[in-house]
Amino acid sequence: MIQFDDFSCYYKNKNEFFCALDGISLTIPDGELLAVTGASGSGKTTLLRCILGQCEYTQGRLLIDDVDSECFDLKSANIGYIRQENALYPHLTVYENIAFPLRAIHTPQPEVDRRVKSIAQTLEIPYLLTRKPKHLSGGQQQRVAIARAFIKNPTLFLLDEPFSNIDPQLRMEMRQLLKKLHREFRPTMILVTHDLGEAFSVADRILVLKDGKVSQLGTPIELMHTLREDTL
Length: 232
Ligand code: ADP
Ligand code: MG
What we know:
The chain is an alpha/beta fold. 32% of the residues lie in helices and 28% in strands.
């Protein structure tokens, strides 16, 4: 469970502090798929960065599984994180890209093989396993990035506008894949997206940020009549 309690985050520019998250209170229960939306600059990426312990100047409380985020042990936590641009290792095959996090913890080869093939199956990319990244389309690369981020079955999966460089047809497919991953593995998922259609079709709840504050929070049904592109 993730709890923000009157939580603020600042960036320091020279001697000025800029408030990027302003008194956020929010509880994200285990297994929820939360979509976070809002205009550019509203603090969406900052929210994820705070969970990842990458923000220096904060106020209020952020608890992850009841532990204050400042004491939270990120190294041993099983968190998947993907961004818009996910650099795959260009010299490694898709198989080795996906296997990389398991190799890093010295997982035995039969187990690596089983896990890589299983996640490749879920993401419908077994036919890509022997290729190198430069022979993949943008959408295929993003699937490989998701497979790599998912290979250790993260209990928390953070996605920062992962599909914004992908064409609309493929985005629809990726939505279905995300839902499938969520159904199969039940991680807590936070999906930052500009795409309201995406938010409404996949999320359990939608959070709308505006100028670093919670502007709206509710289920897709609750927000159906209040949330439109022009309200962001
Ligand atoms: P979003 O992801 O919603 O577009 P961000 O969380 O990236 O927004 O940024 C929120 C605000 O914080 C923006 O006004 C942005 O300019 C500012 N900001 C983000 N990163 C930094 C930084 N490293 N230094 C200073 N200001 C930053
Ligand atoms: Mg962002």
